[in-house]
Design goal:
The protein has a five-stranded parallel β-sheet. It has a five-stranded parallel β-sheet with strand order 9-14-13-10-12, with helices on one face. The protein is built from ten helices and 14 strands. 27% of the residues lie in helices and 14% in strands. The chain is α/β, with parallel strands linked by helices and 304 residues long. The protein folds into two domains: 156 residues, Oxidized Rhodanese, domain 1 (3-Layer(aba) Sandwich); 116 residues, Oxidized Rhodanese, domain 1 (3-Layer(aba) Sandwich). It is globular.
């Protein structure tokens, strides 16, 4: 819902989120099955960082989907490298923001660097308020009306999908995720640089969408999805949660096909809200984004 400006003062305190859901998901808790870490998010400075093991598993996921379906038409929230290149040489100018961990030549020419970890978190690991996060984007030269393209390492660790969630949480309308790998982007004509560009600061006026934020005390009657591996899920999870391993929603360009995702999400009711949790917020955001791309009412689980 986009009409919650009047609730900002009340919800500002709620959004000072606790560092983790560990207490709610520890062995013996009333909301857990089988003990373990359950649906807890490892909030804080490592909130969206994937482990080396997780990154390796993502990079070795088959390039088609788990069901083997071929790729299809790009969802409207994604942009291909070729389409971005055509925008660059045409009249459509988009702000490009790299949100990953930079390496050699990570930046598409003209793009800015917009790291979210730890920028959007307080020292105690809680999420900053919408106004504070908006100030970060404004300082980077992004306003609420700017056409924005976010890119990272193509759904490998969730930096890009989490950044997309943050923008949608602030109410940003014109934001797209860039498909593909660096090689594919270069093949499409995009050029890369060793350093990012910069923009003059502006004012960002958020219109928060609190509907995509779930709090641990508000889960009754909602569909719960645990985005961790099956082994982690079996070790302990939130009561009532079903397991959808984040690797199952990937395809060769970052996202599996709609046909494949329909099978992955077949146990969910599309008319009801879905809450996604994981011990890693970035990986949970990959499943959240896949749900979003298919028209589900999805939210990410935070404590509160």
């Amino acid at each position: 819902m986009q009409n919650y400006r009047g609730l900002l003062l009340i919800l500002g305190a709620v959004l000072a989120i606790a560092a983790t859901l560990t207490a709610a998901a520890a062995p013996g808790c009333s909301s857990c099955v089988g003990g373990g870490s359950g649906g807890a998010w490892s909030s804080g400075l490592a909130f969206i960082g994937a482990s080396a093991e997780a990154t390796t598993r993502m990079e070795t996921t088959p390039s088609t989907s788990a069901t083997g379906y071929p790729e299809e038409i790009t969802p409207s929230s994604l942009i291909t490298a070729r389409a971005l290149y055509e925008d660059q040489i045409g009249e459509k100018e988009r702000i490009m923001a790299y949100v990953g961990v930079p390496g050699d030549g990570s930046y598409i020419e003209g793009s800015i660097h917009l790291p979210l970890d730890p920028e959007v978190f307080n020292p105690d690991g809680s999420l900053k308020s919408p106004e504070e996060i908006a100030a970060i984007f404004g300082a980077a030269g992004i306003s609420e009306d700017d056409p924005l393209v976010i890119y990272g390492d193509s759904f490998v660790n969730g930096y890009d999908t989490f950044a997309f969630w943050v923008m949608k949480y602030l109410g940003h309308q014109d934001v797209l995720l860039l498909e593909g790998t660096k090689g594919g982007r270069q093949a499409a004509g995009l050029k890369f640089a060793a350093k990012p560009s910069s923009r003059d600061p502006v004012i960002y006026n958020p219109d928060p969408n609190f509907d995509i934020l779930a709090l641990s005390g508000e889960l009754e009657g909602l569909q719960l999805v645990d985005a961790r591996t099956q082994a982690d899920y079996n070790a302990g999870h939130l009561e009532g949660a079903i397991n959808i391993d984040y690797t199952r929603v990937r395809g060769s360009n970052g996202l599996a096909t709609s046909q494949a995702l329909a099978q992955v999400f077949s146990a969910l009711d599309k008319t009801q809200k879905v809450v996604v949790s994981s011990s890693n917020g970035g990986l949970a955001s990959i499943v959240w984004y896949a749900l979003y791309s298919q028209g589900y009412q999805g939210s990410l689980l935070m404590s509160g």
